[in-house]
Design goal:
Length: about 425
């Protein structure tokens, strides 16, 4: 069964297109239709209701936990055994395409639909899941739902997180109708698998059908608050200014130099993705800047060195510019290696399907890294066109690329679901 069963790529692709209509907007910069389903907004609620309806139509028993993660369960022949869980997320950044996260959720759903079509039973139950606020760009903590479900983050702390307008996770979950009752922190799957777009150029350039993900690099997020003094842009002599915007720019430029210096290995990456100036006016020297720093490195030791050096740099630049720089850590995850036996299984299933594959380290954070603490876990990557651009409406993977990845996911899931 595992050798020959193959999903309906068209059905998968049309589900991706349908979900992509929820939160759709005309992106003026990219010139195409984008998706905005920021976590726990009305659009996220609408997407959740659609996918949950599809779960039920596929015969899955749906439960929602206290952090709003949604699980659809398919019975196993030995239903008391721990399930094999397949999942990802359907929330998005405000300028997204239709594949990030959704491929993993709708791919898992397609795997279940395929099993239903041929009335195939698995020994272990299967669970298809989507997790709350993977992206983290609204409440500042990514992989929120899976971090709570796997006990890295206490529920009450997650509930209290606020967005820019002071709205809390708990209040917003309630508002969209996804504040569930299932307790968190108890689910112990037999294994967790996630299919996701690569979000980078490597697989496409190497002409590989799928990627076997080795693990996720270390990620460190901080928020800097730079406090200077607002002043008239015309009357204040340059030497009198304490320009928070200038300090933010200097730190951003210094961060890039640090990254390219080679002192933190060849794969160090950094970005200052947000700089918010106050009062943000053409004729006012900004008195305050709040900016985010995103650091990535495959080595925990080199990451620690980069964090320490950047903190020192912040103090030095603050001294030079005569203003205060306060830093607050908003997220931190170490390098996470995935289970080698599951990686080997994924490679084997790809071979059997005649698909080429490549081991690859994930540059982005994923729900899988959270689940890897509680059960054996690995991921399948799908290549993307246009240099694998992602977090952008131009994000695109072909029907075949998506179907190949989901066929590997299904093949691996079937083997894991027969394990004792
Ligand atoms: Zn994602």
């Amino acid at each position: 069964m595992a050798k020959t069963l193959s999903i309906d790529g068209k059905r998968l692709y049309s589900s991706l297109a349908r979900l992509g209509k929820v939160g759709a907007y005309k992106d003026e910069t990219a010139g195409v239709i984008g998706v905005n389903r920021l976590a726990l907004t009305a659009a996220d609620g609408e997407g959740r209701r659609l996918v949950t309806k599809w779960f039920r139509e596929a015969g899955l028993r749906v439960t929602v936990d206290k952090i709003g993660n949604v699980y659809g369960r398919r019975r196993g022949r030995e239903d008391h055994l721990a399930p094999v869980m397949l999942g990802s997320h359907i929330d998005s950044v405000p300028t997204a395409g239709r594949f990030d996260g959704c491929l993993g959720v709708l791919g898992a759903l397609e795997a279940v639909r395929t099993l239903n079509d041929v009335k195939a039973a698995t020994r272990r139950p299967l669970v298809v899941a989507y997790f709350t606020d993977e992206e983290g760009c609204r409440f500042g903590t990514d992989m929120l739902g899976s971090a709570v479900a796997t006990r890295r983050l206490p529920l009450e702390r997650a509930y209290a997180l606020k967005d820019r307008d002071g709205l809390t996770v708990k209040g917003e979950l309630k508002k969209i109708g996804f504040l569930g009752h299932e307790p968190v922190g108890r689910l112990r799957p037999h294994a967790y698998l996630e299919c996701h777009i690569e979000q980078g150029p490597t697989l496409r350039h190497k002409r590989r059908d799928v990627g076997v993900v080795l693990g996720v690099q270390a990620i460190s997020w901080a928020e800097l608050t730079i406090t200077g003094k607002s002043a008239h842009a015309g009357t204040t002599p340059m030497s009198f200014r304490r320009d928070a915007g200038l300090t933010a720019s200097r730190l951003n430029a210094a961060l890039r130099e640090m990254t390219l210096s080679g002192r933190y290995g060849r794969d160090m990456r950094a970005a200052m993705g947000m700089i918010r100036l106050t009062p943000n006016m053409v004729n006012v020297v900004p008195g305050r800047a709040v900016c985010t720093v995103d650091l990535r490195n495959p080595s925990d030791a080199l990451m620690a060195k980069a964090e320490a050096d950047f903190a020192r740099l912040c103090r030095k630049v603050a001294d030079q510019d005569g203003l205060a720089v306060a830093s607050r850590r908003t997220a931190k995850t170490p390098h996470v290696p995935f289970d080698e036996s599951v990686q080997a299984l994924i490679a084997d299933r790809a071979d059997r399907l005649g698909l080429s594959h490549e081991p690859i380290l994930s540059g982005a954070g994923h729900d899988a890294q959270e689940w890897s603490r509680v059960c054996k876990t690995a991921m399948v990557f799908v290549p993307g066109e246009r240099d694998g651009i992602s977090h952008n409406p131009r994000e695109f993977s072909t029907l075949k690329q998506c179907a190949d990845g989901v066929n590997v996911l299904l093949g691996a899931a079937l083997v894991l679901a027969e394990e004792a």
